[in-house]
Amino acid sequence: MKGDLRPEEAMAAAIRRREISPSPLTNAYRVINGPGDNAPPGLTIDRYANWFIISARSSLDRHVIDSWIRIVRETFQPDGLIYKTIEPKAGNSHSTAIFGSNQPIVLIEEGDARFECRLNDGPQTGLFLDHRHTRWFARQFADGVEVLNLFAYTGSFSVHTALAGAQRVTSVDVSQKALQWGRRNMQYSGLNPDAHRWFADDVQDHLRRPRRSYGLVVLDPPVFGHGKRPFSLQRDLPQLVLGAIEQLHDKGILIISTHHLNFQHQHLHQILTRQTKELGLHMSEIRRLGLPPWDHPVPSDTYLSTDPNDRGQYLHTIVVQIHRK
């Protein structure tokens, strides 16, 4: 894919998504997903209500970005537009308001869930659009059980499972700020956050504490993290999986996701199988999920990109049931 591809040609995908409603209904979705929509590798465009976010790798020429900005303004006439520059080191990435409010806060709908999104507050917004289907899928296992949400961030899984009838949701994240944000998201969604539990804690430390009997555990770790000790997905995932499985009661459900090309479904399945056997338990796989195809299309398997900016099918989720008897 060439970086100078005319944005007018690729915007047909964005226009099509505007005319066809996703399921579950939402007012936040991806309108351009790099090469999957005939756009340059390393460029994405997201819609949050009537605000748009253009995210681009720093290696992309600015004149290319300016062309996309112009076309988005002409096509959608948004209330505002944010430009996020993605650097090789995530901590160096930055966000700039092109026009509109400098600190926009937008309330996003996802079915009956509501989420506060801060569009110009660093590289993230508070809601990962690529996990929409996983959040919705998790609801079918939540009714009447205790739920443990690890690396909870702003509590999107916590909100969805609470709305689905969870007895109680325990959210664990090292960031107190993120958990306070999660409490607000519950309030926006008509829930009482005080009916649930919130722990500003290192997930690895939390899993070493006395075991509880959860019916559903959500494990969605970052690639790298900074808790009481540095976190590395490559190094720490097997131990995290072991700890998460130990939290489940008989026939409990584990939903595990990774956002890294080195941890595809087969690799995750091998880790799950090995750790389950180590505990003397049995596992049955329920489903595998990836990026939501409606708004996160990727080129077909025959497309082999040599561009390091093209992340391809980077999201891998496996849902398993653990049997203790």
The CATH class of the largest domain is Alpha Beta
| Terminus-to-terminus distance | 52 Å
List segments where confidence is low: pLDDT < 50 over at least 5 consecutive residues.
Answer: none
Task: Kindly identify the CATH topology of the largest domain.
Answer: Rossmann fold
Strand order of the largest sheet: 10-9-8-11-14-16-15
Order of helices and strands: HEEEHEEEEHEHEHEHEEEHEHEE
Please report the total strand number as a whole number: 16
Counting structural domains, the number is: 2
Which CATH architecture of the largest domain is right? 3-Layer(aba) Sandwich
- The CATH superfamily of the largest domain is identified as Vaccinia Virus protein VP39
Give the CA-based shape: globular
User: Helix count?
Assistant: 8
How does the helix and strand content classify structurally?
alpha/beta
Largest sheet: 7 strands, mixed
Helix content: 25-40%
Q: What's the mean pLDDT score?
A: 91
Strand content: 25-35%
Question: Tags for this entry?
Answer:
325 residues; alpha/beta; Transcription Regulator spoIIAA; Rossmann fold; seven-stranded mixed β-sheet; five-stranded mixed β-sheet
